Amino acid sequence: MESGKQLPVAILGGGPVGLEAAVACALAGLDFVLFERGTIADNIQKWGHVQLFSPFSMNFSQDACRLLSESGQTVPSEGSLLTGREFVEQALAPLAETLKRFGRIEADSEVMYVSRDGLLKSDLIGNSQRQAVPFRLFVKAESGESTVLADAVIDCTGSFGNHNWIGNGGIPCVGEQNFPERIRYDIPDIQGADRAEYQDRKTLVIGGGYTAATNVVNLSELAKTNPQTQIVWVTRRRCSVPVPRIANDSLVGRDSLAVNANKLADADNGPVTWMPGYVVEEIQNGVNLPLSVVLSNAENHERTVIEVDAILGNVGYQPDRSLYKELQVHECYASLGPMKLAAALMGETSADCLAQASHGIDVLRSPEPNFFVCGSKSYGRSSRFLMRIGIEQVQLVTAELSRTLANREPVQT
Ligand SMILES: Cc1cc2nc3c(=O)[nH]c(=O)nc-3n(C[C@H](O)[C@H](O)[C@H](O)COP(=O)(O)OP(=O)(O)OC[C@H]3O[C@@H](n4cnc5c(N)ncnc54)[C@H](O)[C@@H]3O)c2cc1C
């Protein structure tokens, strides 16, 4: 490294929020390097066939729109409801290309660990002197492993893909890890590429959120052309409907998903059998169908055995915090998100993510100076996050970094 060089802001994750962090850094004149472990917006591409609930204007900042149009790209209209794939192709991937004029965008580069150069987690506890010491990142790319130093880190690595387990109590049930080819935890392209796995088959869907609802609705659509398709829908909660509606939900697509899924669960002669108030105890080889699943009634603990072809476990995701385990990050023991933000979120009464604000910069600060967790990862296990919040978060963080990094001493090497 050159003598007297100031270090970049390291942005971890090239999803919508990481890219917005890069936009904010570019406009603030902060040098940045963004690491994405796969291709740009890799997580969104995994559910690219699903339509977003929120209109484009909520998912992409005005600044990002301006950068795109200045580089000659057509910007999607404000109200458009894009699929995940369209969002990547029409906005996020071109934005990443545009951002290369301002900083480094490193795809296929996974940040494995972050620490402070020469300091351990237990050194200078809660002491702002840690700020004077650069961050040290261990990065793994196809070209090999490397160490990168940075003055600040914005962790936007999301939580999608790091799924919760379907077993009773949130740990794997007996057998859960033995059938990886038959148990998925995401949103397969049921009417497209993954159709053969589900048509005229019996699928167990587990979970009471919008991801489970999406799978139930898509499987039911498949049942219209392939009438042997059956769905057993298990929810842990015993409510009047599987997906409680949000009062006066202004995201029309989200509300109609809840309405449609609830109708399917209620129908007597449809393809869906709803089993409220059950948890999964064990999964074994079946006799007539490939999987035999032991369910227990959460109230009276009575057991029921069903046989199915496949399982879709949609019981949420949680952040992978191993990346920053050598840093002094104060986490909530319930949500696994950064503590101050978690406390602010717990104080909220509305289940509607639209009702939320970003809660300001203070809740994003942790005992580790100049280290910030933003985006969906900052919400820990909560699924209420919206991209709109992440955009506000990274704008606040970048404004803070512009102030704190302005007076930094160049690193002497
Ligand atoms: C089906 C579905 C529909 C949704 N619809 C909406 C909607 O309509 N509106 C809305 O606001 N939100 C919606 N969400 C939530 C939405 O996914 C998030 O708001 C958004 O993707 C979060 O962006 P993010 O950048 O925080 O995380 P992600 O999109 O998860 O991006 C994280 C990125 O970090 C990368 N990464 C992970 N680990 C590392 C590492 N160690 N090193 C380097 N890179 C790494 C990943 O590959 C990924 O590209 C939806 C979610 C799902 C699953």
UniProtKB/TrEMBL annotation:
Keyword Oxidoreductase listed: yes
This protein's name: Ferredoxin--NADP reductase
GO molecular function terms attached to this record: ferredoxin-NADP+ reductase activity
Source organism, top-level taxon: Bacteria
EC number(s) stated in the UniProt entry for this protein: 1.18.1.2
Catalytic class of the enzyme: oxidoreductase
Lineage: Bacteria, Pseudomonadati, Planctomycetota, Planctomycetia, Planctomycetales
Keywords associated with the record: Oxidoreductase
